[in-house]
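ugh ok fine here u go
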Amino acid sequence: MARKPAAGFAEAPAETPGYLGHRERLKQRFREAGAAALPDYELLELVLFRAIPRADTKPLAKALIARFGSFAEVVSAPPERIMEVKGAGEAVATELALIRAAALRLAKGEIINRPLLATWSAIIDYCHAAMAFADREEFRILFLDKKNQLIADEVQSHGTVDHTPVYTREVVKRALELAASAVILVHNHPSGDPTPSMADIDMTKKVMVAGEKLGVLVHDHIIIARKGHVSFRTLGLI
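structure:
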């Protein structure tokens, strides 16, 4: 049976968990100095507050950074791999997926209803956010109208760590279905090296030839890697 405190003695106040003070200090730093003032693991801590409301998130944030390498790589990691890290359950994986979806939506908003060739840096930022940290190759096509505005953004195929199948006829067929006047081809190199292979160059030439016959111009082919990108047009390959 629980004992009541003796007359004249007040109960000791419940001790405030130490992580609450840390959370408030971290939030204050973010409010005052912004994200640039925080290392990756502390920014990740802030993201994890909602998924883990009543615990210290610093150990998990550091474990996730150690596992994947950076804030961007953690947010881009597949949910099933996130949940392999001790302490990261479904709520954490969902919160990180939400952050990535919001970032992609924001980046895509920078290129919608604008001439893409006049917002080239925004295109690179969007493609990098969408593809740079994927562990398999993806082949994406940006379809443009006569004003070079975005009609559609589609991933046509997924492949392995070093190859993705591209079917020239399907690229041109889809462009005609969308009444696109031009396309920008994009794919990623999970190896981290954006240098185009001979297969990349050969495929691009085939799409250019097929598209030219039907009035579909290939503006560029961009290869995205974790720490950089290359443009076929800049390299003189288009």
